[in-house]
């Protein structure tokens, strides 16, 4: 199978003539009513002599009709297929359980669920090594799970228990894990992009200054709303300038709370913005995990080789509201139905069965296994203790002795009176 | 001087003093003609204030994220899009620095924007414009360019939203010369202060509180009047007392009033002052009160170091030192980023028991300073 031609991109790519050359219908949003034709684009270099053949991805009508997903040849093995399926089911089941637990009062504050977007997380993160970094936004539960953080620790964190991945101090929007290099979890959109760029910078620095063998790649996940924020553009510039090993993954789910992408963006085609900075910009159907995986493979290996950053725009959709407190009144039910019909898990299941990579019973047993895993995670979280009083003053500094001396000359966070609730805070 | 300017700018005459003062100016009579009070939530109070100011002056416009079609992230601007149209209630992309800057520029040039930050935590992305472009402009231009802008939004801790969504910005903005910083508590405060803020020719940072939005308070006829304004820079004595002065603002006023109830059962009569305005700070009222009671407790939700309590204590020590019978007590949030877990968050924010304890300490009712039961 010809490799996706991101590698052959010239510094100033020119898009091939495609669907997107009809700006009028796109900008008025009428495309949202028609089945969305998504094409994995290849930006051919200016000289036409060696135009790489763009991969014609499958039209969404074909997917809806239930036939060929992906390209002609087999793209994955059975083992890979099962891993992908399991990861997507894990993400979906976990988020559904979160909703249940929230409405029962076990979780509180802001909880942002990822239903519908699993293909993006699985498609990208399952290609990473443990040392590669992932930086996300507040919609980070599934990114953490895909990266390897256990369901138990994420669930316990959401319940605010001491056994959570951040000991109950972070919460839903702040999933961090040093072990799995999950660098967050940020409440402000756009905040994660410079952080991710910095992680990529470290990777390059280690290789070039510290002379360590390091080809770690960073993935920055963020949404369409973030692409209007200054930090996004600043980091695109610096990533190209310094050729950092990063992939900017835009999860374009068309809505930022109640603000439609088309209402807030002068040019809604985000993938094009990479070209302005000299980086390849790619648009991919984010409801199809195999297409995402193809693009991800190429983008990640590009970064690992040292060829620099890539901007990948994934067209995806969130089936639930922005957060569990969002009444979700502004989105058109037709649009929701259109994307619900393109559920990535349903489509992939169909693919696996049709390509004889798995039987119905295998997939059922995976689903059962995940259900049990999630139930176990909930039980674990329920049974875990809440953080002790003494934890309030811990972790403010990495060097706790800098934090403050209590009235008796001892370190405040070690004051036994504090633990018993009798010390003055 | 600032207080005088704000009163001139506020086109009010009869209501030039706080409603509290007026009530006392009227002859005491058993026949009270305006007893009819209705209840109004803070959310509705803010909405009605915005509505009235936008209809009175067509230069006033709202700009921010989700203020229009979503009816406001916390439904404060509900119905305004339908009434005034998308040109005056403007939804923006997610770029605080960008739209706050645009609003400041519009204010330089004659419009009167009301900028909504979804929470004041996000104002950190725009703080350069709030401080450098808005607050300092009148001074830098020697009065050539004034900036009649209002930055409003919820401030401080909510419930379970973790550290990046829970910071209180009163102290940060309160230290900037050129800014007016207001912190309403009740519906009356919210309505009156927002109307004053919009009519004010200077940049105003209007710090609301998310947990107060749904609370109802009684409002009188005069509060519902469309020219009702609360003067900027004047604190309100919510509850009179003679033993200890509790100075506070925003949500902590509610807690302090409850604490005062508990204290009165133990024989301590607490005076609760609702600051309403962090900058300009009403030092006269605070000092007059301390001179009466001789004891001070300040309560705030924000971080303790360099907080608002610190400024109040300094002011009282400077001006009323001889009148103090006890050391000043400061209650503030814990000196940690707000944690997520429920029990930790409760410890990180002042509770009613903390205020009661501090008041008792100031009255020498507890055993020692270091151990508080």
Can you characterise this structure?
The complex is a heterodimer of chains A (425) and B (373). With 425 residues, chain A is an alpha/beta fold. Chain A folds into three domains: 1-70, no CATH class; 78-383, Thiamin diphosphate (ThDP)-binding fold, Pyr/PP domains (Rossmann fold, 3-Layer(aba) Sandwich); 397-425, no CATH class. Chain A has helices spanning 23-27, 60-65, 78-103, 118-125, 141-147, 151-159, 192-208, 230-241, 261-264, 273-277, 289-305, 333-340, 344-354, 360-383, 416-420, and strands at 14-15, 43-44, 133-135, 176-177, 182-183, 218-223, 246-252, 255-256, 259-260, 281-285, 310-315. In chain A, the strands form four sheets. Chain A has a five-stranded parallel sheet, with helices on both faces. In chain A, α3 packs across α4 (118-125) and α3 (78-103) packs antiparallel against α13 (344-354). Chain A is globular. The model of chain A is unreliable at 1-73 (pLDDT under 50). Chain B has 373 residues and is α/β, with parallel strands linked by helices. Chain B has two domains: 7-13 and 38-224, Thiamin diphosphate (ThDP)-binding fold, Pyr/PP domains (Rossmann fold, 3-Layer(aba) Sandwich); 236-372, 3-Layer(aba) Sandwich (Rossmann fold), CATH 3.40.50.920. Chain B contains 15 helices and 14 strands. In chain B, α3 runs parallel beside α9 (187-199), α11 (251-265) packs across α15 (352-362) and α12 (283-293) crosses α13. Mean pLDDT of chain B is 89; it is low at 1-29 and 367-373. At the A-B interface, loops of A face α14 of B.
Give the helix/strand layout.
The complex is a heterodimer of chains A (425) and B (373).
Chain A lengths: L13 E2 L7 H5 L15 E2 L15 H6 L12 H26 L14 H8 L7 E3 L5 H7 L3 H9 L16 E2 L4 E2 L8 H17 L9 E6 L6 H12 L4 E7 L2 E2 L2 E2 H4 L8 H5 L3 E5 L3 H17 L4 E6 L17 H8 L3 H11 L5 H24 L32 H5 L5
Parallel strand pairs in A: 3-6, 6-7, 7-11, 10-11
Antiparallel strand pairs in A: 1-2, 4-5, 8-9
Helix pairs in contact in A: 3-4, 3-5, 3-13, 3-14, 4-5, 4-11, 6-14, 7-8
Chain B lengths: L1 H8 L9 H7 L12 E4 H15 L3 E5 L15 H5 L4 E3 L4 H13 L3 E5 L10 H9 L1 H4 L9 E5 L15 H5 L5 E3 L4 H13 L4 E5 L7 E4 L1 H4 L11 E4 L4 E5 L2 H15 L4 E5 L2 E3 L3 H11 L2 E4 L8 H12 L9 E3 L10 H7 L3 H11 L11
Parallel strand pairs in B: 2-3, 2-4, 4-5, 5-7, 6-7, 10-11, 10-13, 13-14
Antiparallel strand pairs in B: 1-8, 6-12, 9-11
